[in-house]
Write a structure and sequence with these properties.
The complex is a heterodimer of chains A (93) and B (310). Chain A is 44% helix and 23% strand. Chain A has 93 residues and is α+β, with helices and mostly antiparallel strands. Chain A has a 4-stranded antiparallel beta sheet. In chain B, helix 6 links the parallel strand 6 and strand 7 (240-243). The chains are: A alpha+beta (93), B alpha/beta (310). The A-B interface holds A 1-2, 4, 9, 30, 35-39, 41-42, 45, 48, 50, 73-74, 77, 80-81, 84, 87-88, 91 and B 9, 12-14, 122-126, 162, 164, 199-200, 248-249, 276-281, 284.
């Protein structure tokens, strides 16, 4: 099973077109292995992105450097997946 | 394992095997109303099943509903199961549904991307695409919502096989897509096509690949408005509605752009609930409320379709 320990989902708010472009730059950096749950569409629409643990600090630093606001939507993806699995197992039992 | 669809647990997520068993149970319990059709096999050889709800007649106009084309959007497959049960429960009691089924058939594909769905259970819960191989690339899968023959390969899809929005080598390269294309084309009388995704709470109509307005934009917009209003009336969930390109972003090769180009006027796509906290990991406790509210919107669209057959 793929492990998502330490993966966070960030909700990013791009205030204007320039910030949106910056987020799109992030999308192009394949080594970060970002998974956009909601793609950068236009300013004002939230962008949700799953960030693997090794990339969390870089992505946050990038956003902060460019003054792009974000909040942590999911602190640890794996803990939610564990909950989900436990619940399914409980029902099956 | 549930012994009947009455004891089946609709408030939890299920594996592919469990969903296929549910479909068999439903067919066995309602042989006069429900039948199961296999429209193809997936890339990995799994059967692709569609439930047909019909009160009889031949060559009837029909409504198509699919859930789970993006495999990780688990609330959609779970809602599809609930819709199937709801149809069998309500078709004699709910006048609107009875009239619809008196005149039309309903096709429901609960797991549109079975390979991807099985993969989300066994290996990677975050998997969205199909599981097909691209020669020359180590990356697997195609985004089945970019693989349709409508503005295929234009802006709003990726040519990179490693991207989540990879459009595939050519339109209909994915057997999961081609199976629907063949079915819809052969049927010839699909009048409404509703493709269900999650999340972000939207009801969208064509187009996604161009900013040109759809010729039926006004009617689609009015219908979307009334469907969203019905949806919101149950639990207060707010939905936005509009064309794909205006409401979210440019997306080429998407399902409902193709269906619309085939003359299926009532082509819609949903993005179901978003708690704002869990995204694709929507808690199972929200499956039933999500399905309940979505059903009200579906009924509006189906009712309008049956009253405005073209």
């Amino acid at each position: 099973n793929e492990n998502f320990v330490g993966h966070q989902v960030l909700r990013i708010s791009a205030a204007d077109e320039a910030q949106l472009q910056k987020v799109k730059e992030l999308e192009d950096l394949e080594h970060l292995k970002l998974d956009f749950w909601r793609d950068p569409a236009r300013a004002g629409i939230p962008i949700d992105v799953r960030v693997p643990f090794p990339s969390v600090q870089s992505v946050k630093a990038f956003l902060e450097y460019h003054d792009i606001s974000y909040e942590i939507m999911i602190e640890d993806v794996q803990s939610l997946l564990d909950e989900e699995k436990q619940q399914m197992a409980a029902f099956q039992a | 394992r549930a012994l009947s669809t009455d004891t089946f647990n609709y408030a939890t997520y299920h594996t592919l095997d469990e969903i296929y068993e549910f479909m068999d149970l439903l067919v066995a319990e309602h042989p006069q109303l429900v039948s199961k059709i296999q429209i193809g096999n997936t890339f990995e050889g799994r059967p692709i099943h569609v439930l047909k709800f019909s009160t009889g007649g031949t060559n009837r106009p029909a409504i198509w509903i699919d859930t789970g084309i993006h495999s990780r959007e688990w609330v959609t497959q779970a809602s599809g199961i609930w819709f199937a049960k709801k149809i069998t429960k309500d078709y004699r009691q709910d006048d609107t549904l009875r009239v619809i089924l008196d005149n039309m058939d309903i096709f429901l594909e609960i797991v549109t991307n079975p390979d991807g769905f099985a993969y989300t259970h066994k290996t990677n819960r975050m998997w969205r695409k199909t599981r097909s191989r691209t020669p020359g690339s180590l990356c697997v899968g195609v985004d089945p919502n970019r693989n349709w023959d409508a503005g295929f390969g234009k802006a709003g899809a990726s040519s990179n096989p490693c991207s989540e929005t990879y459009h595939g080598k050519f339109a209909n390269s994915e057997v999961e897509v081609k199976s629907i294309v063949d079915f819809v084309t052969k049927h010839g009388k699909i009048k409404a096509f509703i493709s269900i995704h999650s999340y972000s709470q939207l009801l969208l109509y064509p187009y996604g690949y161009t900013s040109d307005p759809a010729p039926d934009k006004e009617e689609l917009d009015q219908l979307a408005k009334s469907a969203v209003s019905a949806l919101t009336s149950l639990h207060g969930t707010k939905f936005k509605y509009g064309s794909i390109i205006d409401t979210i972003y440019q997306a080429s090769g998407s399902t409902i752009d193709w269906t619309y180009s085939q003359g299926i006027k009532y082509s819609f796509t949903f993005e179901l609930r978003d708690t704002g906290l869990r995204g694709f990991l929507l808690p199972a406790s929200q499956i039933i409320p999500t399905a309940e509210e979505t059903w009200l919107a579906l009924l509006k669209i189906m009712d309008h379709t049956s009253k405005h057959l073209y």
